[in-house]
Each structure stands twice: as C-alpha cells, then as structure tokens.
C-alpha cells in the first residue's frame, strides 16, 4: 500500500508537466466549446460529396491565439489549472484513504486469486471509493476551474477582469456571489459520475463474460473510458459554457452567448442548434450550426462569414 501511495504522489508532478505542455491545445478547445470561432470557415466537401464548411483545426486555432497574444498568451489560465489539478488530486487521495469497508477482500491479492463473490465485492468497493473521492476532488477544486475558464474566455473580448487567483476570486464573488464559484458544477459531476459507473460496470462484465485473455483484459478499462468520455462529452461543453455565462465577460453575454437560466436551459439551446458536441473533434472540424445551401455552397445562418455578394 505504501508503494502505491508513493506512486500516486509521484504522478502529480508528471501530470502537471503534461498539463503544462498540452495547455495551448486545451485553451483552444475551451474557446471552441464556448462557441468562439474567430477564423471564418472555408467551403469544402465531405467524403460523400456534400457541401460543408470546414473550421480551422485546433493547431490553427492555437496559431491564431499566438498571433493575437504572443507565445505567453497561449498559457492564459495555466496557474489556476495547475492549482485545481493539485488540489483535486490531494483531495481525491486523502478521501480515498479515509474510505474503508469491513468486508473488503485482501488488498494484497490479485483479482485472479479471489473468488467470484470477492471479485464482485472489490469492484463495487472500488467504484464507491473512486466515486466519492472524485466528487470531493471536483467540489473542492471547482472554484479554481471556474477562474481558469473565465481567464481563458477573456480572449474573446480582450478583457483583463480575471487576472491573478486572488483578484479573480474577488471578481467571481462580485459578479455572481457564492454560487459563481460552482457555476457549471452539476453537469461536470454528472459526467464524471457517469464515466466512473460506465467504465467500472462495463469493464467488469466484459472481462468476466467476453474477454478471457489476460493480456487483452488490461486494455478493457482504457477502451471503455474512451467510449464513456465520448458519450458524456456534451456535459463538459455545457459545464464550460455555464462557467462563463453571465460572468461580466463578452464571451458569456449576448450576442456571443444567451443568458441561461440553468444548465438544462443551456443544454436545450445547444442541442437545438446542434452545438452540444463542439470541440469533440480537434483535427477535422465542420460547422454544424444552422445553415442553408445556396448554389451548391453551405452558408451559415446569422453569421457574417459570408454575404450574398460573395456567392457567385
């Protein structure tokens, strides 16, 4: 157990390094998720020959951010992001250590050494422990995630309201009160809980009834996590939109974003314009909002990307 705990703590700086390296891509993805598309789409065709509008991929988006704010600007929101991850990881680990079960199977035994009832019990215990620990980690760190998202969203309007962690905490309270620190937390909690339940239950069933090769079983959890994350992705989009909605920034106010009553209102609106999965594809992106076909070309509705005199 000691070696496992040491391994968890040693993973924190490694993960922070990875988060730092990948931050520009995550930054661009957040801007896409909240609906900011500063680069006009280009006319193209799908593999089936249908007219479509191709949006810039995430690397082109990062290049655009750099052209506006410079290299350092690509790391806007990094500090609260790293603080949120560290706080969440510590809260997760501490909570996990505190949760014990009286009928827990021997932790020193591998799954192959356990009986079927013991295996099932271990799976349930691990799910409950991870679920509670993950929820605690999210609740504790979410205010920092809100600050991170609002710092990033300032790119849309060029604001500097959210600058520095302490100042940003004060600004969040001024704009939205205590509730502002937990804007968008409900869809985030739902997404994370759903992923844990789906991965745990599906991995157990697949490894028990479908896959019998021990080597293949090691890939089941990661494969199911990818599928579960894809299925629950819309909750992440809604969570990020709610975190910046009506926060005093241009990105969270009309015409860039309607003011939503709650996250269900946000979900309903994004679903109605087919934008609930925006940002899910980073390399091949297409405009999927309202549009019309004019002379064989796809034209976005209610945008200024194209006008009538450009259609030949």
From TrEMBL:
- State the compartments where it is located: Mitochondrion outer membrane
Identify the keywords attached in UniProt to this record, alphabetized: Membrane, Mitochondrion, Mitochondrion outer membrane, Repeat, Transmembrane, Transmembrane helix, Transport
The membrane topology term of the UniProt record is:
Multi-pass membrane protein
Q: What Pfam family is a match, any one? A: Mito_carr
Report each Solcar repeat as a residue range.
121-209
Q: What is its main location?
A: mitochondrion
Alphabetical list of PROSITE patterns matching this protein: SOLCAR
- Top-rank lineage group of the source organism: Eukaryota
For this protein, the record's InterPro entries field holds:
MCP_dom_sf, MCP_transmembrane
The family this protein is said to belong to: Belongs to the mitochondrial carrier (TC 2.A.29) family.
Name of the protein: Mitochondrial carrier homolog 2-like
- Can you name the source organism? Polistes dominula (European paper wasp)
Annotated gene: LOC107063943
